[in-house]
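User: My collaborator sent over this chain with a note saying "see what the structure looks like." That's all I know about it. Can you take a look?
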Amino acid sequence: MLVARTLDELAGDRAMLARNGRKLALVPTMGALHAGHLALVEAARRRGASVVASIFVNPLQFGPAEDLAGYPRDEAADLEALREAGCELAWLPEVATMYPAASASVIEVSGPALRWEGAARPGHFRGVATVVAKLFGQVRPQLACFGEKDWQQLQVVRRMVRDFHFDVDIVAVPTVRAPDGLALSSRNRMLTPVERALAPSLHATLEALAAELADGLPAITRTEAAAAALGAAGVQPDYVALVDAETLEPLEAARPRGESPARLIAAARLGKVRLIDNLAMP
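Assistant: Without extra context I'll predict from the sequence alone. Here is the result:
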């Protein structure tokens, strides 16, 4: 596996990979890799692409009250995992490479970015959109793989790609879960044993809520009840909502078959860790 740390190295390695005639696939990550990230690599490989995985803890995604310095990092283990997964190029830029001192541009996003994570973490999706656009310009992939676990992020990226006419196919990869249902996340390793035992209740709550809403119960009262139940169990909810799957606008009830799809989304806090999850409505 090739490892690039400068733009010149990246350009040379990218050109080398391009000579094999296959498409380039980007797998953007912030490191601390787990099976969910490796599923993105596998999804790209199944499409016959040469895989370029980036590892960059993006400071623009972190708010003033969020612990950028405390985000888990393990470069050696990440590179070994990517190598074993069949990644062909790892791109590890420095902050100064991504955000030179003279930088004057960021991407402001609205639409699907306005609510939920966008409201809870002001500026977060500006950071996501800006760094993804920079990675597209640097790597020049034909496709890019994103996990459905970060459902709102996926919709923000899709919207940006359409708005700016990026010639990149966005591949959505289903959430990878632990056997007890917890969505895999780099931050899960920061949970205490007691918190880890409570964490699967977020997914279980969404599954129960989906069944209730499928039976025609009103979304607002049932999501409020689900949030209250999470709080009583020791998981502090930021939000639980039924939304349009693409626009992230809130819905009053589940939609009939044949209409545009709906999604259940939720975020909650356990100690220092913020969990997010989502579930497709049938």
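A starting point for your reply to your collaborator: DSSP finds ten helices and nine strands in the chain.
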